């Protein structure tokens, strides 16, 4: 199967992602057709050009925005004394727009969603772009204590940032079916000016979006990860860690605006192929087990909850006949490799276990996508499973069904049935 790997040694942003995809060989027309579908008129002008950062050649994606929704850039010397500790002038180190977080005129989430929904973008690109914005809106809403629908975007609502997200989704879609992975993203230290005040790095929205994703901070005074870049990672990437064995096909570099020594301000994208069947996706996970006969059901439930909150993929209990004729159970925890140690610690401290067994099985799975379908009760999110290019599963998300049911004052079963029916045409399209 084909794998796209983002090497985020200098963080990630939307425009760097687009530049890296172009450098991998995605045609310019793919990006420009997606931007034209947004019908933003004269708000933006986009182009690509070649360049280099610390002698690494790559492609720079530039979006020039103007008009009522343009983002206003500021250089480092535009800011008062004391901000010089952040060499990028509060810019997103890897981004194409060296801007302050607080000086742009954006759109609200509702307006952006309407803009995307009415566009003639390909359904898969539209769905992914909507999901990326949903992630950002959910993060901003949680930070400010409001619903996602009421979130007023600033930088991310500007026309140039909308272009970054849509172009990135279009470029990834153009590469065809593949698995997307990334290195552990790198973030710098220091402070950043946001619309709501001065905050430490990582920026609040970025940190919230990256919940559940490994992150490493370095003692360098640049903001390397933008909220847009974080949301793209959260939306597309299925694994975070070192590059697995693969046959390399191509490598591309997306350039940021500024030089950020000692590290080159680039995002590296690696396209390759593994020996896994094209029909299914696969990865290696950790399977952690322990046998217990002296843990109360209440303590077992509490341990399960903590394991899930700490990143377990799955936790389940299997009845077992223990030694000395005692009934007990086996706790099984499925974990991403990078979270294994943390989950083992929970088992050893939150249960009566004196030890655990660890295996590293290979897991084969369907490629997954999420889309929204319309029902008489409202929009419901569904999970799609692809076997190669064939859609073989379509399952409504329970939490989405429950939320819609509460709003519409109907049963969850009715919403689930309506969503399932609405999803069936996708299986034959």
Structural write-up:
This protein has 429 residues and is α+β, with helices and mostly antiparallel strands. It folds into three domains: 272 residues, no CATH class; 75 residues, Alpha-Beta Plaits; 61 residues, Ubiquitin-like (UB roll) (Roll). 30% of the residues lie in helices and 28% in strands. It has eleven helices and 20 strands. Helix 1 packs parallel to helix 5 and helix 4 crosses helix 5. It is globular and about 75 Å long. It starts with a strand and ends in a 6-residue tail after the last helix. The relative contact order is 0.15.
Which residue ranges are poorly predicted, with pLDDT under 50 across at least 5 consecutive positions? 68-105
Largest sheet: 5 strands, mixed
Give the % helix.
25-40%
Domains, number: 3
Mean pLDDT score, rounded? Answer: 86
Instruction: Write down the overall geometry.
Output: globular
Tally of helical runs: 11
The CA-CA distance between the termini, in Å, is 23 Å
The proportion of strand residues reads 25-35%
Total beta-strand segments? 20
Described by its quaternary structure, the protein is: single chain
Q: How large is the radius of gyration?
A: 23 Å
Q: How are strands sequenced across the largest beta sheet?
A: 9-4-1-11-10
Name the descriptors:
single chain, 429 residues, alpha+beta, Alpha-Beta Plaits, Ubiquitin-like (UB roll), 11 helices, 30% helix, 28% strand
